[in-house]
């Protein structure tokens, strides 16, 4: 008998019908002879609604209290799911992240899992239960405060539990049939990928393909847990994310040259205008940002439009950290020495990802040609060995993704990609 971890995203449990549908699926897995651990997200857009509510009472809610609020979303779905399973005549018990032994550091709103001690889950399984665990939450090791793992963090909970329980597979159930060559909400001709390596999936995830969270893929790679991303609405095979290619029929699925195109409109750009062109300036800007516990993405330095002898330094960061970054830089203005700050949240990022880039020199040129043919202006560029990313105007993103997808021959010639649920929020 094997142990499977299944994770159901918010769109799969958006309402009572969804919860009952998912409950049936879980019971099937149990009837097939598996021990089943289920990680569940908050229903539908509950997390967004709770954040909106918090912002109505305070423009910058305290991290600790926001975590306490947001974890309520997953408590609702885990309890309802356990009830629905019991209603089908099977034993189930729900657990908060803390009860399930998900131990984190104490960085509120984006805590990292540092240990998983699933003793209670094991006992529940041994007693014949299906264990339902609230995703996205844990408890901090030092202060014993409730924490959350960052948006989309239930994926990480699932993989961390799969690793701690030595599961055979971690199944991530969502509202599309797997990982596609682009977001099916933007590219109708996107193709489902049968197998993708951890490396390419990591790049796609960190470039904005929210179908899997970056930290979850990182965790899966570290513990070599295969992930199967699939739809909770269809019975189709999904996408395998693992270290080695899978077999399909009697042939092996090959590593694609280009895995896909990702986009991200959740970032903003800050430009520090009029920075003295001398050693140590960039260091003090980014030290200030790091001390505020903000992660940045792309960085570029230009000769300043303000005056000679000065430079402008631009960087991108999550929009949700914009206010905090501006406040931190303003506070340290005298120390750093700059003219002004510009904040721009009307940007978007498009990334092309594929291990084949390393050995195919024309890829970069083709990427820029596709963008230029689509009339898209590029503001920032960054690359890794297996990724090229550009920042453009937000309004150009959808068009740019489709143009690049077509230019690299990724368009499917059969069916349109299906999106079964969710609001895309
Ligand atoms: P869940 O609620 O199940 O966690 P998410 O909304 O977090 O679902 O993730 C699924 C969504 O990810 C899809 O509906 C799709 O719009 C989006 N997505 C972005 N890029 C991709 C991609 N390359 N392949 C599949 N889905 C993608
Ligand atoms: N409910 C949380 C969110 O919306 C976590 C998750 O869905 O994975 O971000
Ligand atoms: Mg998700």
From TrEMBL:
<protein>
    <recommendedName>
        <fullName>Aspartokinase</fullName>
        <ecNumber>2.7.2.4</ecNumber>
    </recommendedName>
</protein>
<comment type="similarity">
    <text>Belongs to the aspartokinase family.</text>
</comment>
<dbReference type="InterPro" id="IPR036393">
    <property type="entry name" value="AceGlu_kinase-like_sf"/>
</dbReference>
<dbReference type="Pfam" id="PF00696">
    <property type="entry name" value="AA_kinase"/>
</dbReference>
<dbReference type="InterPro" id="IPR001341">
    <property type="entry name" value="Asp_kinase"/>
</dbReference>
<dbReference type="InterPro" id="IPR041740">
    <property type="entry name" value="AKii-LysC-BS"/>
</dbReference>
<keyword id="KW-0457">Lysine biosynthesis</keyword>
<comment type="pathway">
    <text>Amino-acid biosynthesis; L-methionine biosynthesis via de novo pathway; L-homoserine from L-aspartate: step 1/3.</text>
</comment>
<keyword id="KW-0028">Amino-acid biosynthesis</keyword>
<keyword id="KW-0418">Kinase</keyword>
<keyword id="KW-0547">Nucleotide-binding</keyword>
<feature type="domain" description="ACT">
    <location>
        <begin position="270"/>
        <end position="346"/>
    </location>
</feature>
<comment type="function">
    <text>Catalyzes the phosphorylation of the beta-carboxyl group of aspartic acid with ATP to yield 4-phospho-L-aspartate, which is involved in the branched biosynthetic pathway leading to the biosynthesis of amino acids lysine, threonine, isoleucine and methionine.</text>
</comment>
<comment type="pathway">
    <text>Amino-acid biosynthesis; L-threonine biosynthesis; L-threonine from L-aspartate: step 1/5.</text>
</comment>
<dbReference type="InterPro" id="IPR045865">
    <property type="entry name" value="ACT-like_dom_sf"/>
</dbReference>
<dbReference type="Pfam" id="PF22468">
    <property type="entry name" value="ACT_9"/>
</dbReference>
<keyword id="KW-0808">Transferase</keyword>
<dbReference type="InterPro" id="IPR001048">
    <property type="entry name" value="Asp/Glu/Uridylate_kinase"/>
</dbReference>
<keyword id="KW-0067">ATP-binding</keyword>
<dbReference type="InterPro" id="IPR018042">
    <property type="entry name" value="Aspartate_kinase_CS"/>
</dbReference>
<feature type="domain" description="ACT">
    <location>
        <begin position="352"/>
        <end position="425"/>
    </location>
</feature>
<keyword id="KW-0220">Diaminopimelate biosynthesis</keyword>
<dbReference type="InterPro" id="IPR005260">
    <property type="entry name" value="Asp_kin_monofn"/>
</dbReference>
<dbReference type="InterPro" id="IPR054352">
    <property type="entry name" value="ACT_Aspartokinase"/>
</dbReference>
<dbReference type="InterPro" id="IPR002912">
    <property type="entry name" value="ACT_dom"/>
</dbReference>
<dbReference type="GO" id="GO:0004072">
    <property type="term" value="F:aspartate kinase activity"/>
</dbReference>
């Amino acid at each position: 008998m094997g142990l499977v971890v299944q994770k159901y995203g918010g769109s799969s449990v958006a309402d009572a019908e969804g919860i009952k549908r998912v409950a049936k699926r879980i019971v099937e897995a149990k009837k097939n002879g598996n021990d089943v651990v289920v990680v569940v997200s908050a229903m539908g857009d509950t997390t967004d609604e709770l954040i909106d509510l918090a912002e109505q009472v305070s423009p910058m809610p305290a991290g600790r209290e926001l975590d306490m609020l947001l974890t309520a979303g997953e408590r609702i779905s885990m309890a309802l799911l356990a009830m629905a399973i019991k209603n089908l005549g099977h034993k189930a018990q729900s657990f908060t992240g803390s009860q399930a032994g998900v131990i984190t550091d104490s960085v509120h709103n984006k805590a990292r899992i540092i240990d998983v001690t699933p003793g209670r889950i094991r006992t529940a399984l041994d007693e014949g239960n299906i264990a339902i665990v609230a995703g996205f939450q844990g408890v901090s090791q030092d202060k014993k405060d409730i924490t959350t793992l960052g948006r989309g963090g239930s994926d990480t909970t699932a993989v961390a539990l799969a690793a701690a329980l030595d599961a055979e597979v971690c199944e991530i159930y969502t509202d599309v049939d797997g990982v596609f060559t682009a977001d099916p909400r933007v590219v109708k001709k996107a193709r489902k990928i049968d197998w993708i390596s951890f490396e390419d999936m990591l790049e796609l995830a960190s470039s904005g393909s929210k179908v899997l969270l970056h930290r979850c893929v990182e965790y899966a790679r570290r513990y070599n847990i295969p992930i199967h991303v699939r739809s909770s609405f269809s019975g189709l095979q999904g996408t395998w994310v693992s270290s080695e290619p899978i077999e399909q029929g009697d042939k092996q699925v090959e590593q694609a040259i280009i895995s896909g195109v990702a986009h991200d409109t959740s970032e903003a750009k800050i430009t520090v205008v009029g920075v003295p062109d001398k050693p140590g300036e960039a260091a003090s800007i980014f030290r200030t940002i790091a001390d505020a516990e903000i992660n940045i993405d792309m960085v570029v330095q230009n000769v300043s439009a303000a005056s000679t002898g000065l430079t402008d330094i631009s960087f991108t960061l999550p929009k949700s950290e914009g206010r905090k970054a501006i406040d931190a830089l303003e506070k340290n203005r005298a120390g750093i020495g700059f003219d002004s700050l510009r904040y721009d949240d009307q940007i978007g990022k498009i990334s092309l990802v594929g291990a084949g880039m390393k050995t195919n020199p024309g890829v970069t040129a083709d990427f820029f040609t596709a963008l230029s043919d689509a009339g898209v202006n590029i503001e920032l560029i960054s690359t890794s060995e297996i990724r090229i990313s550009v920042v453009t105007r937000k309004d150009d993103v959808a068009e740019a993704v489709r143009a690049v997808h077509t230019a690299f021959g990724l368009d499917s010639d059969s069916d349109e990609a299906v999106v079964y649920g969710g609001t895309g929020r």
